[in-house]
Structure formats: C-alpha cells, structure tokens
Amino acid sequence: MALKQISMIEIPGSKGSSFDHGAFDAKTRRVFVAHTGRSCLEVIDHNAGKHIGTLAGFPEAAGVVAEDGQVLVTNRGSASLSWVDARSLATLGVFDTGHRPNGVAIVAGRKLAIAACIGDDAHRPELRAFGLDNDRKHALALPGQPRWCVTDAAATRVFLAIREPSMVLVARLPALDEVTHWPIPVGGAHGLEIDHQRGCLYVACDDRAVVEVNAQSGAILNTWPIAGGPDVTFVNPATGLVHVAIGKPGLVQSIDPRSGASVQTVTSPGAHTTAIVAPDRLYVFSPAHGGALVYEDA
Fold this sequence. Notes:
Elements: E1 3-10, E2 22-25, E3 30-35, E4 40-45, E5 50-56, E6 61-67, E7 70-75, E8 80-85, E9 91-96, E10 101-107, E11 112-117, E12 126-131, E13 137-141, E14 146-151, E15 157-162, E16 167-172, E17 177-183, E18 189-195, E19 200-205, E20 209-214, E21 220-225, E22 233-235, E23 242-246, E24 251-255, E25 262-266, E26 273-277, E27 281-286, E28 291-297
Antiparallel strand pairs: 1-28, 2-3, 3-4, 4-5, 6-7, 7-8, 8-9, 10-11, 11-12, 12-13, 14-15, 15-16, 16-17, 18-19, 19-20, 20-21, 22-23, 23-24, 24-25, 26-27, 27-28
C-alpha cells in the first residue's frame, strides 16, 4: 500500500515555483500539469520518463483534465478555458468562463466542457457547461465557492465540491438542472474524486478528513482523518486506493476504503498536486525539487 519513489523528472524553470492540477491522457501517454507560477502548461512523456514541452499562454493555469487526446485548462488570470490537442499540443480554442475558473471536467465524446468558477467580490461563483464545437452554453449560480468537479461514468451528472457551506452539488448534464445539494459533515469540501467501479465519491476536506459518499444517493458511508489540509485527490482504479495530496507538511496520504487502512508518504512542502497513471504510477509535482516525483503505487 505504501508508495515507493522510483524517479524524478525535472521540469525546467519550476524550482520554487507553483503547480496546480495535473492529468494523464491515456491516448497519447502524456502527463499535463498546470504550472501556475509561470502561466504555462507542462508536458511529460510518461513512457519515455521525460519532460517534452512547456506551452505558454495559460494565465495562472489552474485546473487540468485530459481524455481521449483532448486537454482542458482553466486560466484563472484571464477568465477563460483553453482546449488543447494532446498529440500536436496545438490550442484548438479558447472560451470565456466566469471569473477565476478553477475546477474543470470534460466529456470528450460529446465535446462538452464544465468549468467551476470561484468568482470575486463583484461576481458570484458559478458553474458553466458549454460545447467545444458548437454554441451550447449553460450556467448555474452556486451557493458557495467551488473547488473540484467530476462526472459520473455515463456523463449524465456532474458532482462539484463546494467549500462553504461544505457540500457536494449535483446537477444534470448538459443543462445543469435537476440540482441537489448533499451536505458534507466535515468543513471545507475541496478535493473530489469518483470511483466508478464502487459508485463512490471521495471528498477531501480542509478540516482534515476524507468523506466517502454514495454517488447515487448522497449517503455518507465513511469518514477518515488525514494529516492536513488537502488538495488534489485521485483514486487508482487498479488498486482501489484513494491518494490525497497535502501540501503542508508535504505528503501523500493513501487510504484503502475497503479496510480504512491509511499510510503517509513524505514528499515535500508545497507539493499539493498529483496525477495518476493507472495501474501503478503516481506523479507528485514538487516545486522544492523542480519537477515531478514519480512513485510506484503497488
């Protein structure tokens, strides 16, 4: 269950900088990570184990998702979302969002993008869904600051973590209607992941706990303590483990939801974002190391 470090991949110009979300595209075998501190998108060739590109033009890049050769990046600094081809690395389009977009999800087969926008003093937080290849647009005002979002396996619903009041908001896609609110009994819903095989959501909360939620009913199934305020959360579908990145003090906490067993792997202070490459790799992006720490998830 413990993670074992097997390599470190240098990312030029990243030492002492800052990263946000990362994602793996299985079609191209590439890992993409938002390099927030340099307003760019970094690209790693997983099979070759090396950094292959720095893409400029992503102001305060935040959320990243990848699916079927398509990558979406939310740009907090320009209230926009970029659509990138994972193979050519060309930007296919840039779309307006609400203010300070953060969480993002993609339904590649339907060319559908979802962006959760934090807002500011003058603009309410909102969730947006829109077509990447047509003029479909839907928006939903939110009851609080959004964090991460995921979709169900059929891509009929989106689940969104709301920090305060702590909840998971559920809406039907693509219209963002039939909305329900599932209260979370721990403050500060933040990281969010879904295990499609088990039909469960995992909500990593700022008040130092991970909450397991039934993805059909919203029922609370389990709660496990964690070592600090969390950020990026991933389930490895091959192992069933839930990995939670905790930037302070700098570790990944791995939880087996079948038994409740938990282990901590020390990474580095500020390493709060990861990317899972099933079946057996976890990338941890570390500004202190200036690159990606690669762990075996056995």
